[in-house]
Amino acid sequence: MDKIIGIGNALVDILAVIEDDALLESMNLPKGSMQLIGKDTLLKIQDLFSRMKTHCATGGSAGNTISALAHLGAAPGFIGKIGTDEYGMFFRKHLQQMKVETRLLECALPSGIASTFISPDGERTFGTYLGAASTLQTEELMPEMFAGYSYLYVEGYLLQNHELIERAMRLAKEAGLQVCLDMASYNIVEAGRDFFDHLITQYVDVVFANESEARAYTGKEPHEALEEIASQCSIAIVKIGKEGSLIRKGTQCLQAAPVTVTNVVDTTGAGDFYAAGFLYGLTNGYSLEKCARIATILSSHVIQVVGTELSETKWDEIKLNIDTVLQA
Q1: By the 8 A CB rule, do 151 and 4 touch?
Q2: Fewer CB atoms inside 10 Å of the end CB: C or N, the chain?
Q3: In 10 A of CB 40, how many CB atoms?
Q4: Beta strand segments in the chain, E
Q5: What is the DSSP string of 115-175?
Q6: Cα–Cα distance for residue pair 12/120, rounded to 1 Å
Q7: Could you give the CA distance from residue 38 to residue 243 in angstroms, rounded to a whole number?
């Protein structure tokens, strides 16, 4: 099995279910988006959360994907930066417990926090204070960090640092790795479309996008967007919600059906878990159809809980479901 190393913002998620979306408007957070916030806004949110029931979990897009891969026994790695505070210790301890090979740097700033608002329909909106995560420097990335891996998984949220994300991809390519990019959020794509285009055409082998991200990148609807993205890389995936996902590699194109979920609690991590499932299949040499089915299994389970932490019983159920797919 090939190994994957991820790079992303090392964040701790603080999650809260809200009664309606008026709260998002009062915080100037567009529903379904990820917005970077400063310390003043963070303090307002923390004051608000102090009067609400919240849940704490390790997060960050790449962090979620790598944790899910670890649960499947993939022995992945992770590159990121944390503070020397309780949240940083929480993040490091969790990854180490999962047997993730951590390449975590530290600084004096507070660790990054993703304040996550879960709407009644399960949609999630992030107010993200990057803190220490944003101080990962280009010169801190070393060639030896990528040794022993076959894939680099990059979250699009790193786009705020062009030099960092490009150096990571360049070092990965020089080490012989394939590069996988998740587009992260439609507003991130809208703000950095030209740079996304540069990265995809120059470095990226596998692209993950949902339909709003694909539309922001291409200006086209899912099927046409898939065609355009696939012309620029080896494998393109466009997730289309209740209709499943579209996958194209060269002349091979398929639509994977979704798993029916009657009780969507929280969509946090759905895309991250989809990527984990797909990459798990890819690194094991499975067909695109089986990769997509495994991806769908993982994403269908995580949207039934608040946050991205699944019980061991649920992971056992997921593994049985995967075995069924592989035997089909």
Answers
A1: yes
A2: C
A3: 8
A4: 4-7, 11-17, 34-36, 55-59, 77-83, 101-107, 112-118, 124-129, 151-155, 178-182, 206-210, 235-239, 245-249, 252-256
A5: EEEE-TTS-EEEEEE-GGGGG--GGG--GGGGTT-SEEEEEGGGGG-HHHHHHHHHHHHHT
A6: 22
A7: 37
Sign of CA dihedral 271, 41, 86, 118: negative
CA distances to 28, 256, 266, 277, 294 from 263, rounded to whole Å, are: 28, 21, 9, 21, 20
Phi, psi of 114 (to 5 degrees): -105, 105
Give me the residue spans of the domains in the chain.
4-9+61-111+135-327
pTM over 0.85: yes
Q: Which residue has the tokens 């995809």?
A: 200
In which residue are the tokens 């600084």 written?
Answer: 107
Digits of tens for pLDDT over the chain (328 positions)? 799 999 999 999 898 999 888 889 888 899 988 888 998 898 899 898 989 999 888 889 999 999 999 999 999 999 999 999 999 999 999 999 999 999 999 999 999 999 999 998 888 898 999 999 999 999 999 999 999 999 999 999 898 899 999 999 999 999 999 999 999 888 899 999 999 999 999 999 999 999 999 999 999 999 999 999 999 999 999 999 889 999 999 999 999 998 888 788 777 789 999 999 999 999 999 999 999 999 999 999 998 887 788 889 999 999 999 999 998 7
253: which strand partners? 248
Host H or E run for residue 259: none
Q: Domain 4-9+61-111+135-327 - what CATH class?
A: alpha beta
**Phi, psi (5° rounding) for residue 154?**
-120, 130
CA distance 31 to 203: 31
Q: What are phi and psi of 305, to 5 degrees?
A: -135, 160
Residues 96 and 189 sit within 8 Å (Cβ to Cβ)? no
66 within 8 A of 59, measured Cβ to Cβ: no
- Tokens standing for residue 184: 């992260």
